[in-house]
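Tokens as discussed.
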């Protein structure tokens, strides 16, 4: 019995010692974090398998511009959330994670975005990633990616940072709000129509009754007067309905125009996705990535996107047509390269069109 009591007492003492050590270690660690100051910060950049858009120097400058201080402060006071949020404000940064090591070093790990193309049309200079994210090219170093030029009319502004699908969604939502507003503007006209109908019925439902002391002349006179008043009420109602119908038709015409824009916007988004897929096909093909010097876009806005490419070989431009099934047209162009141009010469034509499926039209 005494042996068991001693055994249990030993266990209790051991656990008490563990708790004391744990509390001491935790208190010591907390005291260490409160008293120790951070001595340095390391910024690690991930992504950008070919080239860096941002580096640690650019990110140090970015953090300093936004007033983030992470060095020379107590370890437990390092603004980790602010470090991450400010880093993510840089449009070239996709992910950011910050932590402090035990020896007081602040580590900020950044994953940069990886562009697949550069949009350089009038007033615009932006990078595009494979998932459709756009951001200004001025926010970092230059990337060696295909350049997109031409008369393309982007849906977004030159300072836009975000996904193309979000720009399409937001624009669709704003247009839908206009449609709803126009629908609301119909309500007063519909109420006016109801009131005009009530006013007409007040008159047209009236009847002249002959009283015992009413002469036939007066009775006939009252009937004629009521008949004239009812005709006038119908005329006024008809004019009111014509005016109301014209107002409502005008509003509906505007709604139809906006819905047409919405349909076009959805096509704009689809065209953009097709163009990105086309760019990806070029980037992942050793021959085409070396051959395509420039991609030329036209359309956008209210017009369907059209695509052309400027190849390195020859002095011609290849019209690829509308932004659908572009990868298949690349295959057609490759066969034309192998079968025709190698025999006829690369300077035989000024333009080549693949606009019509299965056909190559040269000039």
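Sequence:
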């Amino acid at each position: 019995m005494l042996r068991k009591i001693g055994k249990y007492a030993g266990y209790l003492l051991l656990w008490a010692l563990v708790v004391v050590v744990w509390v001491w270690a935790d208190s010591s660690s907390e005291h260490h974090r409160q008293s120790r100051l951070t001595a340095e910060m390391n910024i690690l950049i991930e992504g950008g398998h070919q080239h860096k858009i941002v580096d640690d120097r650019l990110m140090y400058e970015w953090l300093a511009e936004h007033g983030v201080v992470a060095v020379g402060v107590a370890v437990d006071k390092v603004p980790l959330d602010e470090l991450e949020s400010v880093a993510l404000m840089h449009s070239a940064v996709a992910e950011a994670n910050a932590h402090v090591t035990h020896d007081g070093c602040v580590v900020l790990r950044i994953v940069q975005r990886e562009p697949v193309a550069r949009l350089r049309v009038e007033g615009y200079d932006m990078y595009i990633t494979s998932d459709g994210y756009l951001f200004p090219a001025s926010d970092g170093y230059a990337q060696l990616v295909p350049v997109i030029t031409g008369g393309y009319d982007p849906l977004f502004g030159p300072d836009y940072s975000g996904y193309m699908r979000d720009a399409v969604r937001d624009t669709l939502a704003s247009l839908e709000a206009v449609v709803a507003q126009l629908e609301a503007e119909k309500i007063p006209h519909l109420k006016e129509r109801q009131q005009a109908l009530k006013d007409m019925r007040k008159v047209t439902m009236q009847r002249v009754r002959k009283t015992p002391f009413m002469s036939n002349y007066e009775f006939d006179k009252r009937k004629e007067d009521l008949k004239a008043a009812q005709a006038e009420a119908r005329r006024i109602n008809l004019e009111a309905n014509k005016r109301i119908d014209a107002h409502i038709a005008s509003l509906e015409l505007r709604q139809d125009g906006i819905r047409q824009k919405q349909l076009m916007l959805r096509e704009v988004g689809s065209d953009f996705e097709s163009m990105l897929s086309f760019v990806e096909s070029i980037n992942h093909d050793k021959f085409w990535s070396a051959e395509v010097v420039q991609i030329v876009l036209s359309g956008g806005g209210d017009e369907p996107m059209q695509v052309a490419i400027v190849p390195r070989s020859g002095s011609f431009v290849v019209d690829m047509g509308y932004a659908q099934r572009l990868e298949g047209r690349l295959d057609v162009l490759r066969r034309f390269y192998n079968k025709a141009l190698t025999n006829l010469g690369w300077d035989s034509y000024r333009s080549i069109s693949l606009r019509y499926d299965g056909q190559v039209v040269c000039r």
